[in-house]
Amino acid sequence: MARPARVSPDRILAAAALEFAERGFAGARVDRIARRAHVNKAMLYYHFKSKNGLYRTLLRRMFTLAAARLRAIADGAGSHAEKVDRVIASMAAFMDEHAFFPAIMLREVAEGGVHLDRETLTALAALPAVVGAIVHRGVKARAFRAMPPMFAYFSMLAPVIFFLAGTRIRKEISHLHVVDMRESSADDFIRHMQHATRRALARGSARHARTS
Amino acid sequence: MARPARVSPDRILAAAALEFAERGFAGARVDRIARRAHVNKAMLYYHFKSKNGLYRTLLRRMFTLAAARLRAIADGAGSHAEKVDRVIASMAAFMDEHAFFPAIMLREVAEGGVHLDRETLTALAALPAVVGAIVHRGVKARAFRAMPPMFAYFSMLAPVIFFLAGTRIRKEISHLHVVDMRESSADDFIRHMQHATRRALARGSARHARTS
DNA sequence: GTCTATACTTCGATAGAC
DNA sequence: GTCTATCGAAGTATAGAC
User: Fold this and answer.
1) What span, in angstroms and rounded, lies between the C-alpha atoms of A100 and A114?
2) A22-36, B23-37, B191-205: which range is least confident on average?
């Protein structure tokens, strides 16, 4: 019994996600998070102890959720190439559902993880670990060319995160009429990345090697 | 005459670069920048008016410098593919000389450019503009497959920025022994990106298309 | 669990002498 | 151009009543 009605912690986390994504850890304001969540600021401290506690809880959740999706792909059926395709699509979909995720990822990489405790860092580490494992198996099975799995991880996911986090600045830049950065949709870009990744991982075709 | 001995503005900018890269705009402390630069805080305001003025001056400089290098490549000799190769190498070298650059880029993308004025945004916009122009010409000359130039821009440079900015968090993560992210050097990664980009841009080879 | 009021600290910025 | 001293605004966090 005692259905806990844990509604305010969840509302706080949702508000915190927006605030931290928009402003970063240092720029985020506890008052603003509380106001956005329609809770009293004291409630926030009651549930999460501190601004940092809230931040870590949020990130641990996000990373755990995202890693679970990747693990389902890694453990599921399909060819190595199909799994890589799905990793890209699935992370793009995840970031679409959780629009705050890409900006937070960018900031956390820039920050060097200074606000994270061991547990949260471990949750984060699962992402490269699972993707790396998929690539590693593909290489071992000679479905992919030999390459460090982490290289594949960065080259397939960094552009997706960057592109999705950068929607706002691209709009700003397009207004200046120096470059038009609105040319295509996020969906098109995801397909582009799947295609580019497939080619980067494919064996053979030394034809495309050094031309200089 | 009156050799201005503009040494303190430059020292301030150098100190600001480190501080802003490490902590972001909101997390950066004016006192700390002044102390790092060995100048009085009042001097900083005397030269740059405000924290934001300092930030914009720094970024405008960086973007202008980086864009100049890219323009030299675009206007120089060589095949389309060679130019793309050089864009990647040159940006990697630039970020190696200015180690604070990648983190600031990541943060600014996440931030949506809110601290930047029109002039600084225009300087930033030159980067995708020049790279986009190189790709566009290559596509027009049928040296590259057809694709939106901005897609090529993101897929070739986002991983480089991400990788270089992420040195610190990768070290943190490697300590946890969940994944080893130290496997290879930055130079190896740059070569990987050049190779992957060459393949992504190359025409033909429909063999690597959809496998699902 | 919830709210008001407030303690305590830090930070950006400036005044004003030299 | 340079420095000391300081103001005033914000910000995190908590005490304590209900």
Assistant:
1) 19
2) B191-205
Backbone region of residue B145 per phi and psi (left: phi > 0; alpha: psi in -120 to 50; beta: other values): beta
Chain B residue nearest residue A114, CA to CA: B169
* Rounded-to-integer distance, Cα B101 and Cα B94, Å: 8
Q: Is the CB of A11 under 7 A from strand C?
A: no
Range with lowest mean pLDDT among A54-68, A174-188, B49-63: A174-188
Is A115:B169 a contact under the CB 8 Å cutoff?
Answer: no
Domains annotated for chain B, with CATH where assigned, are 53-204 (1.10.357.10)
- pLDDT tens per residue across span B54-79: 999 999 999 999 999 999 999 999 99
Helix ranges (H only) for B28-166 are 30-37, 41-48, 51-75, 80-97, 101-111, 118-140, 149-165
Best A119, A151, A193 member to test B by mutation, with max B CBs in 10 Å, is A151
Could you tell me the pTM of the whole model? 0.95
CA gap A188, B36 in Å, rounded: 46
Which chain A residues touch B172 with a CB distance below 8 Å?
A: 112-113, 116, 121
Q: What is the pLDDT of residue A39?
A: 96
B60/A contact by beta carbon, under 8 A: no
CA distance A181 to chain B (A): 7
pLDDT bucket at A8, cuts 50 / 70 / 90: confident
Closest residue on chain B to A123 (Cα): B178
Secondary structure of residue B6 in the 3-state scheme: coil
Q: Tens digit of pLDDT for each residue in B111-140?
A: 999 999 999 999 999 999 999 999 999 999
Q: A211 and B79 in contact (C-beta within 8 Å)?
A: yes
- The answer to whether the Cα torsion of B134, B139, B142, B145 is positive or negative is positive
Range of weakest confidence among A20-29, B126-135, B177-186, B200-209:
B200-209
Nearest-CB residue to A169 (from B109, B178, B211): B109
- Tell whether A143 is within 8 A of chain B (Cβ): no
Q: Quote the pLDDT of residue B8.
A: 87
Q: Tell which of B70, B88, B95, B169 to mutate to test the A interface (max A CBs under 10 Å).
A: B169
Residues A62/A116, Cβ–Cβ less than 8 Å: no
Chain-chain contact of A82 with B212 (C-beta, under 8 angstroms): yes
